[in-house]
């Protein structure tokens, strides 16, 4: 037997590989935790009705974890788990979508626009639900249709009519306020008489039809005001009543043109630097244009500086028009940073706030150690970028994706980047930013990341959203990311959710989601349930995504069950090729079997049958099943 054994450190993440991925990617070493039970955070059942098979991973290659995902597994820190679908209270189906096929819903588009409007200073934070929003991630990116293919990858759409109306009303109100301030300033400095009550400014949006009637710059004229005419009329009436106007008006000429030019000169000094409109006096009218279209030879002032979002756009008028609406507050800068999974005190502080305020966790339960075990520790062996089309620039492994606005960390997405997918694990965010629907927005960004990185790694095709629980209403939101697929727990094939949903409407667990495939219990499953029973049951504390798997061993785990059953045969559920790790050695079970007594063989083989059924035949040959 010794001649067939090979040496390697069981806990090493860089040892010789037993997988098909090659030695450069390490090896996968796991300890079988058997059946795990916990209370359910979804149906809130009083007992420990959430049942899964658990593995503790010392190390795991990205290729093996990709295959485990496609067998229905997930990880929480270094703990791997797979629901026992026929036993657990809330059957959980792995859900994914092909990123290139993703079509955002209207609600998802609204979320993108809301975030963009917040970045542009256009979102009324005091009343965020009623405010409108624009798409894309960066404030330096044009949002027009000509940038669809190269921007964030999401399918942007125009705001609906009600949103446009509210947006226009906000802009009109803002511009009117600025003109009133300009009138007051001119009055204070003697440009306009102080003893006369002047009318309030009124700004109106210029319709598309009227723009076409104008010649120079008409297509970019957005808003206009005739306040100068109203003031001129008021002053002329005052003059006819022997009330002299201000001597600052040339030759005491009370003309709308002169007043308009006086007001325009004051507007720029009052406007906020976040705005991006050009204001120009034109024959007594005060007109507001996209800043890029102003004529340098005319009397004009620009309400803001550079138009970075128009850079590289073929439709500058489109960009200018959208920039002209950034008027309510200062612009904000969003950065999305991808970093290797590691402990960060700032991230932990944010996680603690999130768990306490959003999930109502007790403060003394949100500890640094539990956070590390849940979201920092990872058994995935990191694969650095290779410079070819096999690995993306960031490499493969576990990452934290930070969302930072003006230097303030507002959210962290915990993700695994694997050869065929980005697997979303968890997200925590600042409760103060709940109005931005950060969870939905981060999902859209993760989908977009996959699409953008297919150029560097063509095998990256899918976005995995974790588990979908049809019987749990709060988990059904995942079906909104379309077109998605569910993993059939019998055949391990992907089934469109539109096909699976009618079946799941009838009962929460459907063994076969594929049409015309009868549900049945396999020979190995029947054998496993009869022989093994609950010998290796482990109790797991409850939390979403199996947080903190602190385990307890059940009392009846001391030995194998013998009554009424013969020895386990290595036939249908052949376990002879399972790779065993023992004291640093790697050996197939068939070469190790003789080293055990009859009772030990029976107990171990019952565990190996269940393990093989859970991970699949191929993975059982590659993954090291550690016995110590």
TrEMBL record:
Pfam families: ATE_C, ATE_N. Residues 546-559 have a biased composition (Acidic residues). Residues 293-303 have a biased composition (Polar residues). GO terms for molecular function: arginyl-tRNA--protein transferase activity. Keywords: Acyltransferase, Transferase, Ubl conjugation pathway. InterPro entries: Acyl_CoA_acyltransferase, Arg-tRNA-P_Trfase_1_euk, N-end_Aminoacyl_Trfase, N-end_Aminoacyl_Trfase_C, N-end_Aminoacyl_Trfase_N. Residues 38-110 form the N-end aminoacyl transferase N-terminal domain. One of its GO terms (cellular component) is cytoplasm. Residues 1-27, 293-312, 546-570 are annotated as: Disordered. Residues 346-488 form the N-end rule aminoacyl transferase C-terminal domain. Involved in the post-translational conjugation of arginine to the N-terminal aspartate or glutamate of a protein. This arginylation is required for degradation of the protein via the ubiquitin pathway. This is Arginyl-tRNA--protein transferase. It comes from Linum tenue. The lineage of its organism: Eukaryota, Viridiplantae, Streptophyta, Embryophyta, Tracheophyta.
